[in-house]
Design a protein that fits this description.
Layout lengths: L12 H5 L4 H35 L3 H7 L2 H20 L1 H21 L3 H28 L6 H29 L4 H20 L4 H7 L4 H11 L30 H31 L4 H25 L5 H18 L7 H29 L2 H31 L4 H18 L12
Helix pairs in contact: 2-6, 2-7, 2-8, 2-11, 3-15, 4-5, 4-6, 4-15, 5-6, 5-8, 6-7, 6-15, 7-12, 7-14, 9-10, 11-12, 11-13, 11-14, 11-15, 11-16, 12-14, 13-14, 13-16, 14-15
């Protein structure tokens, strides 16, 4: 590494226009791991649901209330911790969120009843929401212009990778242990990530350059050296609007209001379809007569498809605009969810159709993070993505809740699937109106 100083008025030049160093890619990899942890922690309740239902005698309606509880916490975490991140820093927010996730997962693991488990899931959700808002932002701000969209979409794809790994490891474990093993495993993994983030992920240069805390220049110089770039002599002029405190109201100013509204509505619809599919699938499969381990395996195959979908969307987004790519992906998601009940006659057919649906539905989730990066300036990226993710949790809550009511009312699986596929279908048409924006990262 060359430590020779170079004068510049913009310390971001080295990061945004220089080569990506191994240290920068390591930060991206850790952020991917954080999203994988999020994916596992959120879907752990789905892995545990068949065993919980059997032990506590839960009805479909009751399960529809329990499954989305952490999503309520995610709404508060995404919005509140997203704004906190833009005002107080990415690293501090991420560490705080990891502590909350660890506490929440451990509380769920030892809960003696469904009420205390619900409290643990809400705490977990707050932390998960914070990580969702900060991990992708951190990856974006440590990437150069060439690799930013690819890296952010791949990081978002870690969500499906975490579900796949969880399903792969849990399928045999659930044959030996009860459903609580899902939460014990999540608590341990969350705890392990705290020192990893503390040691290897510095505060982002973009944040320090905007906020200018005490010793900002020295901190930026140290971080540039740590990630393999030449330090700077000066930070230069203070960027405009850095004195303004970031809040959700900022997102509804004329420059960003339309972007925020369209992304909010589209994400709300798609996430409702997504969480219906992944939250109810293990219960649906076991109700069809398959074992809990087989149901976990089906969800694992769907998540494996999601890994390929997330990676595929990331690479394709380098070749074509992300908006038309997302339109196609969302419509494919709706089709896969609606058609899945027609292939439940055999485990093999469910795996094949589930894999294809996973490619589309997880690819769409990852693609939204690419839309965030392309739509918001850096000063609003964490707040903007956090707000959209937070409001989207309304769709995430309705996604598992509405099917519980529909099943209780006597509707069959095929009709419920068509109704719930409507969220992705509507989202695919809404983003047509998303305005084009250039120079999204400032």
């Amino acid at each position: 590494m060359n430590n020779e100083k170079t004068s510049t008025n913009n310390p971001l030049n080295a990061v945004h226009t220089g080569r990506m160093t191994a240290s920068q890619w390591l930060i991206v990899l850790i952020c991917l791991g954080l999203l994988a942890l999020d994916g596992y922690d959120v879907l752990s309740i789905s892995f545990a649901a068949p065993g919980m239902t059997e032990e506590w005698g839960l009805s479909k309606a009751a399960l529809g209330v329990i499954l989305p509880l952490e999503l309520l916490g995610m709404a508060f975490g995404s919005i509140g911790l997203g704004s906190f991140s833009d005002n107080m820093g990415r690293k501090l927010t991420t560490l705080f969120a990891l502590v909350l996730v660890t506490i929440g997962m451990f509380a769920a693991a030892i809960a003696p009843n469904v009420y205390l488990l619900g409290i643990g899931r809400i705490i977990t959700g707050i932390g998960v929401g914070g990580i969702l808002a900060t991990a992708t932002t951190t990856a974006a701000e440590f990437c150069n212009n060439k690799n930013r969209s690819l890296a952010v979409i791949l990081v978002a794809g870690g969500y499906s990778f975490g579900i796949y790994l969880g399903a792969t490891f849990l399928a045999p474990l659930l044959k030996q242990y009860d459903w609580r093993i899902t939460f014990h495993l999540g608590a341990v993994m969350s705890l392990l990530f705290i020192p990893i983030v503390y040691v290897f992920v510095p505060e982002t240069i973009s944040y320090l350059n905007r906020k200018r805390p005490t010793g900002a220049l020295e901190k930026v110089q140290a971080i540039l050296q740590k990630i393999g770039h030449k330090p700077v002599d000066t930070l230069g002029p203070v960027p405009q609007n850095t004195a303004e405190k970031i809040s959700p109201i900022t997102l509804f100013k004329p420059q960003t209001a339309l972007v925020t509204i369209i992304l909010m509505l589209a994400y709300f619809g798609n996430i409702g379809t997504y969480y219906y599919f992944v939250k109810w699938l293990p219960t649906i499969v076991t109700d069809l007569g398959y074992t809990k381990s087989e149901a976990t395996m089906v969800l694992g195959i769907i998540s494996l498809g999601g890994v390929f979908g997330s990676i595929g969307v990331g690479f394709i987004a380098r070749l074509v605009p992300v908006k038309p790519l997302m339109m196609i992906t969302l419509l494919a998601s709706a089709a896969g969810v609606a058609l899945f009940p027609y292939f439940v006659g055999s485990l093999v057919n469910m795996k094949i159709v589930g894999f294809a649906t996973g490619v589309a539905i997880f690819g769409a989730i990852s693609g939204f993070f690419g839309l965030f990066v392309a739509s918001y300036p850096a000063s609003l990226l964490s707040s903007g993505s956090g707000f959209v993710l937070g409001i989207g949790r309304g769709g995430a809550v309705l996604g598992p809740f509405i099917p519980g009511l529909l099943f209780t009312a006597g509707l069959d699986l095929k009709l419920v699937a068509i109704i719930m596929a409507g969220g992705s279908l509507i989202a695919g048409f809404i983003i047509i109106f998303l305005p084009r924006k250039t120079d999204a990262i400032a």
